Structure formats: structure tokens, C-alpha cells
């Protein structure tokens, strides 16, 4: 039997849930179809024998987007979040990522022969990351607001990004590895940490962005990532949204350029005015 909704959302990760919550706020009847047996996608965690384990993300960047969106949905409580802290331990050093000046000194204590390179690296990273923090603090990001507020947000953001102009060319044209290649000739561990940190050939801007987030903007929900997701699911359902698990969409039916219906592997068929696909588009088979 075909069931009809205003909007069907494919995927119950953070994107599908936030789309669903916004649609409920707009008064639309929506359904989330989720392949797994719980929501969360890459943010999921599991409980086993009384212990909770995160399975994908370790924490989440806020970047001036997450909290304004949660506020807009009436789901933000600052007491539910703590800042995630990072720590780098080797036989030579034990550095907590609290503050760029403290990290600079702690790394120099651990690697005195690389002190000049460490200074050079932090001379670049510290002001850049602090400027990024000012950008993120400038108010809700354009993606998180609508109408006139969006325009004001772009203007604020452009103003706050001026201190980054000096480093913009390097950030947009170099990789992390290129940036550090001459800084640590005798210390491959620092070349790895400061230039790569597990992501090869990453644009320097993204690389530095992670250093901004590591120190200043990674947040962890005290209830665990799955606890946060479960809170979103509960709110979505209480506000009239429907979510179905173990429902894998493997076919979309199109008319012209519009998707008009989808089918799950259990042969259920759903029609809607609009479809939002937050799953993997390459896995969907379309049929006119
Ligand atoms: C290993 C790893 C670590 C990460 N660490 C971090 C981190 O520390 N901090 C951070 O901010 N970000 C991190 N990210 C990025 C973050 O996980 C993603 O940006 C975010 O989860 C994307 O959410 P999403 O809803 O778009 O997609 P997903 O989380 O992938 O959710 C998509 C959902 O759709 C479902 N689905 C897919 N296809 C179908 C279908 N055909 N039918 C029905 N359901 C379907 C899936 O089961 C899934 O639940 C990490 C990503 C990975 C992979």
C-alpha cells in the first residue's frame, strides 16, 4: 500500500534529523526512512554490557552553526555540552591541547632540538586560529539563519575574516605537508603531527581549521553522541515526525526531473511532494 507524506527523508543521521525537525517546525508531515536499527549514522554509538561506546565521530565541531540551529529548534541546553579536550602523548612529551601558547612551550620542552620549527609553526597557527575563533563567535553563520539575518551574517563574517587575508594565499594553495616540510628536518613525528595528522594532502586551510577546532571548538554531548541523537529523535517524534528503522530505500521513482515516490527493500512504497536524500545517492536506483 502506498503511503503519502509532504516530505520523505532518506537517512536518519544528523542531516536527516535536522531536516525532519525543521520540516515539523514548518508544519509539514514528514517521514524519515533509516537503513539501520537506530538513528545517528556516522554519529552513532552503542551500549554493550552497561558501557557506552562511540562508533564514528569523537565529538563535533560547533563552528557557529550547531548551537544556533539547536537554539532555533528549541533543543539547546548549554549544560548538556562540554568542550572536548585533546592530548598528545609520546615517550618525549605529554601535551594537553588547551591553549596555543601553552602547547608551544610544552612541545618545545618535549622536542628541544626542534624549538625553532615549533616556534615557526605556532607563529603561523596561533594568530590564524585565534582569528578563526573570532569569526565563529561573530554570531550565527549564514547557513544557520534566514532572510535579513543571513545578509547581516555574511557582512559580519567578511569583517571578521580580514585578519586572515595575510595567510589566505598560503592557506588556499599549500598542503599541510608543504607548510612543514622544512620546519622539522630531523623530527618525522612533528612533521606528521603538524603537517598531516592522518589526512594526507589536505589543503592547509582545512588542516589549520582542524587545529582551530582541536583547541577551541570541539564539543561533546554529556549524554554521549548517541544520547544527543536520541534526544533529536524524541523531539522529532513528539512533534509529529515519523521515523522507520531497518527501512532501506533502494529505488526512487521519477517523473520528469522530480522524484515522486520511493521504495524500500521491504517493497514498501512512499509518495511525497518532496524527497530529501541524506544517504548515498550513488546507491539509489532511479526508474522513470
Ligand atoms: C570515522 C568518522 C569520524 C568522524 N569524526 C567526526 C568528528 O569527530 N566530528 C565531526 O564533527 N564530524 C566527524 N565526522 C563527519 C560526520 O560524521 C559527518 O559529517 C556526519 O555524520 C554526516 O551526517 P549525515 O547525516 O549527512 O550522514 P550520515 O551520518 O552518513 O547518515 C546517513 C544515514 O543515512 C542512512 N542511509 C544511507 N543510505 C540509505 C538508504 N538508501 N535508505 C535508508 N537509509 C539510508 C545511513 O544508515 C545513515 O544513518 C566523521 C566521519 C567519519 C566517517
What would you say this structure looks like, in words?
With 288 residues, the protein is of the alpha/beta class. The protein folds into two domains: 2-62 and 222-287, FAD/NAD(P)-binding domain (3-Layer(bba) Sandwich); 86-216, no CATH class. It is built from ten helices and 14 strands. It has helices spanning 14-25, 66-72, 100-110, 115-136, 147-160, 165-173, 176-180, 188-195, 204-216, 224-238; strands at residues 2-10, 30-33, 45-48, 51-54, 60-61, 81-83, 87-89, 94-96, 218-221, 242-244, 249-255, 258-264, 269-277, 285-287. The strands form four sheets. A seven-stranded mixed beta sheet has the order 10-2-1-13-12-11-14, covered by helices on one side. Strands 5-9-6 form a three-stranded antiparallel beta sheet. Strands 3-4 form a two-stranded antiparallel ribbon. β3 and β4 (51-54) form a beta hairpin. The longest helix has 22 residues, at 115-136. It is elongated and about 70 Å long. The protein starts with a strand and ends with a strand. Bound molecules: flavin-adenine dinucleotide.
Amino acid at each position: 500500500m502506498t503511503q503519502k507524506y509532504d516530505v520523505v527523508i532518506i537517512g536518519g543521521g544528523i542531516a536527516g534529523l535536522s531536516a525532519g525537525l525543521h520540516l515539523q517546525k514548518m508544519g509539514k508531515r514528514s517521514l524519515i526512512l533509516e537503513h539501520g536499527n537506530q538513528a545517528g549514522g556516522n554519529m552513532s554509538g552503542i551500549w554493550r554490557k552497561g558501557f557506552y561506546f562511540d562508533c564514528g565521530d569523537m565529538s563535533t565541531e560547533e563552528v557557529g552553526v550547531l548551537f544556533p540551529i539547536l537554539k532555533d529548534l528549541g533543543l539547546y541546553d548549554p549544560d548538556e555540552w562540554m568542550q572536548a579536550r585533546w592530548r598528545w602523548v609520546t615517550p618525549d612529551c605529554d601535551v594537553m591541547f588547551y591553549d596555543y601558547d601553552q602547547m608551544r612551550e610544552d612541545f618545545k620542552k618535549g622536542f628541544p632540538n626542534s624549538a625553532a620549527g615549533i616556534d615557526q609553526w605556532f607563529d603561523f597557527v596561533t594568530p590564524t586560529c585565534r582569528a578563526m575563533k573570532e569569526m565563529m563567535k561573530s554570531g550565527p553563520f549564514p547557513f544557520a539563519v534566514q532572510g535579513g539575518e543571513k545578509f547581516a551574517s555574511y557582512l559580519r563574517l567578511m569583517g571578521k575574516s580580514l585578519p586572515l587575508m595575510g595567510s589566505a594565499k598560503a592557506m588556499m594553495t599549500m598542503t599541510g605537508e608543504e607548510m612543514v616540510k622544512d620546519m622539522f628536518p630531523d623530527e618525522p613525528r612533528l612533521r606528521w603531527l603538524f603537517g598531516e595528522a592522518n589526512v594526507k594532502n589536505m589543503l592547509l586551510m582545512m588542516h589549520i581549521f582542524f587545529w582551530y577546532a582541536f583547541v577551541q571548538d570541539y564539543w561533546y554531548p554529556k549524554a554521549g553522541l548517541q544520547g544527543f541523537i536520541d534526544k533529536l529523535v524524541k523531539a522529532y517524534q513528539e512533534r509529529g515526525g515519523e521515523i522507520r528503522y531497518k527501512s532501506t530505500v533502494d529505488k526512487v521513482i521519477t517523473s520528469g526531473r522530480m522524484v515522486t515516490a520511493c521504495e524500500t527493500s521491504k517493497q514498501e512504497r512512499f509518495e511525497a511532494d518532496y524527497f530529501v536524500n541524506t544517504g548515498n545517492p550513488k546507491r539509489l536506483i532511479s526508474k522513470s
